[in-house]
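Design job #97: recover the sequence.
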């Protein structure tokens, strides 16, 4: 049974989970961001090899940096969107369970 509040901390606590900033890493959007980062890294590594053949370690480091950068950017955008979405939702219940 869910608590009579719509506070994310109370709902997660009721389900036996703790609400933390790391919770969003378990979402599907984070998995998609990771896959997109890997694909971007591979494409940049391949394009760099075709345009200017470089040694494999240089290509690997370049591709890894691009993958990490794309993943980090997408996760930051996801966090920003989650925060904006949470602020835009009206609060239905007060923390004590009473209606506003």
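Job complete. Output follows.
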């Amino acid at each position: 049974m869910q608590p009579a509040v719509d506070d994310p901390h109370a709902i997660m606590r009721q389900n036996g989970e703790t609400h933390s900033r790391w919770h969003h890493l378990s979402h599907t959007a984070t998995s998609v961001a990771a896959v997109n980062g890997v694909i971007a890294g591979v494409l940049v590594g391949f394009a760099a090899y075709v345009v200017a053949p470089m040694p494999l370690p240089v290509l690997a480091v370049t591709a890894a940096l691009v993958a990490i950068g794309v993943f980090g950017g997408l996760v930051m955008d996801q966090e920003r969107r989650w925060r904006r979405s949470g602020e835009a939702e009206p609060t239905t219940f007060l923390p004590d369970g009473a209606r506003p």
